[in-house]
Amino acid sequence: MLRGQMVCTGVVRARYTCGIVEGFDVAIVGGGPAGACCAAFCARAGLRTLVLERERFPREKVCGDCINPAAEPVFERLQIAERLRTLPHGKLQRIDFVAIGGRTVSVELPEGAEIAVKRSLFDHLLVTRAAELGAIVSEETTVTAITPPAGSSQHWRITAGRVNHAARILVAADGRNSTVARLLGLLPKFQHERIGLQAHVPLPTDFGERVVLQFRREGYSGQAPIGNAELNLCLVSNAAGIKSLRAWSEKEFKLSREQTWRTITPLRRTALRPAQNRLFLVGDAARVVEPFTGEGIFYALRSGEIAAASIATLVNGADALATAQTYAAAHEQLYRGRLWVNRLARTAVLSPRITSALLRTSLLPRSLLRVLTAKIVS
Ligand SMILES: Cc1cc2nc3c(=O)[nH]c(=O)nc-3n(C[C@H](O)[C@H](O)[C@H](O)COP(=O)(O)OP(=O)(O)OC[C@H]3O[C@@H](n4cnc5c(N)ncnc54)[C@H](O)[C@@H]3O)c2cc1C
Known about the structure:
Bound molecules: flavin-adenine dinucleotide
Strand content: 25-35%
């Protein structure tokens, strides 16, 4: 057990002194959807599982809060589908694509398919489930250094403050700016990239059960109701345009200048090799997708789940390099056939004027948008 810990509903709020905490099969850095899901499946497979998470849950996060229905089978396997439905949420019946100038093309979503839930609630549910299944979740624990194992019988050493954790297998689930990848020299230098801003604001009257993807000259805005009369509002632009996009949103949604915004960058990054010898990368740490498609959480959950299956075989004696290859192949398969939608979405959002012109002139027919939407929410 951890020294000086405070246990709170199965989750550890770390109050460390110092020392080495040993004996874990797997240490997972990051308790977002990828890390919590991976932890839940590892713990259920009987592995001694540790999650190290910088924040204290529940916490918000820059996200559109939309849960892609493709994730439903994962919720069933985690046995949280019912609990998820009882959380405050917004129902989404259609997507409105709004061109610069206002022309709107609507595409219906399958009945009851997509919902939007605040990440504070969603991520807390996942991490609670991981703890229920036996994972030790250490919150307010920021990983600052990693020492790779010196030999095949050695452990990874993961340092958080003055405490060193030891584990046979390491999972990077710490998001697009992955500390693990950076500390191990795997993270490429970022190019100048777009910035995402997000806020929860009062839901405008008669907003309806819809997602709005609205093109602006500076970039785009995503809007979705999330229950309890709140709206998730996201803005995406480059450094030059984000101020003016924010000014537009303050006027459009009658926000005060004091409105709190969460921020993140980059939105695009080179994909990393998802596995090496006893190291697994899951979720955004391995590969990010264009936020516009609203698929990131699905990929995070599924990659966490398939990594857990590989980790269990590894702990049970499988060859480390063969297991890394198996996971890398399954990871590739997860994205195969869907990345063209991601590329198309990125092209569309990087050229809002052209996309708007296509929407205005019906050169981007509703049937094509329907096909793309069906591909994303299938
Ligand atoms: C503007 C925007 C809108 C989006 N909208 C949607 C959407 O509507 N639907 C959708 O499915 N996806 C959306 N996404 C993508 C989605 O947010 C991500 O794909 C998803 O959060 C990835 O989950 P993850 O678990 O991999 O990483 P994260 O959710 O980023 O979790 C990583 C965790 O690691 C922790 N961490 C980081 N560093 C450390 C450290 N050093 N030590 C310990 N812990 C650490 C963090 O605190 C965090 O809790 C959007 C993204 C953006 C930017």
